[in-house]
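Chain X:
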Amino acid sequence: MSCGKHYDSGSCVIDILKDIVDAQNDVLHDCTTSCEQSIADLLGDSNGGSGFDTVPVILYCKDGCKPFKGYGSKRSGERCNVKGSFFFRVKSVDDDGCAILELLFSDRNGDSEDSRDDDPKSPADQSCRDLRASGICITVDLKCFCHVTCLPAASTL
């Protein structure tokens, strides 16, 4: 897909993320762009069955087109440990362009309680290997984003 194509919602970011949610929920096309390839890998089109459940994404804010970092915390007794991530699993996208995103971490950067890298400065500071679902979800307005980068399909659950 290219952003020059007509989209149902009028936003390529919204429509790509809706496609990702649909593919993740179904867990079949030859595609050439990174998002399309990641979706195909998720569905097992390119390898005959993938075992993947997620297309991790990086979103870029319209203002200055910088990578978006989400923050959240899981309740852990009396402790509140706020973590930031540039990597997300799209949980849902509604017709108004609101999405629920789950922060993704690897053991190398925020998934363990002992991690010191809970606030990376850029996506390059985070490892995209062995990503895991965190259970930390945020709600965003997808109309605030101008770009989406898909990382290789992964098994995060």
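Chain Y:
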Amino acid sequence: MQYLELSENYFSAVVALANSIHGDNYLSLAQLQLMQLQGVKQGVNASFIAIDRDRVVGYRLSFSPEQWQIDHWCSEGSWPVVVKQMAYFKSVGVVASYRGKGVAKNLLRLSIQALQQQGATAGLAHIWRESPGNTAQLYFTKAGAKLINIHPERWRHLSETLGYNCPRCGQTCLCSAAEMALLFAEL
């Protein structure tokens, strides 16, 4: 297994993997190009991929502090750190046959190391609560993240505006998000 910083050479593979896991129209090439830039600060890239046998088997998209949009899905007043120290964990995905083998954990560790170099002391995520067996929230809790808030129908607007097809709900996503924060000092 090889872990590399996300680069343009792997964009198509990451888009395909993300859409196969999270649903059609979850991620486009144009969106990924912008997201990758949101994870680069001070020459340090906080987004990574996992490759096995020349195939992308996992990815983690992370945004640098002050390089992501705080919106109404964010409970800023309840965060454990100030905005300028808060990174954002946008998305993670691992091929099914590689899950449970430490791929997501290693991708998270690499992102945290990079984000710390950029000045982050914590990372925020909106975790898909309706993932099969709620594995997404369980994974992030096991990593040390704490629940901040629950946001019903977090991704509905993506279905209505971008044609996102949720793998659970179909054309209109009604899934909720667990807003969670991971303090890097506690790791």
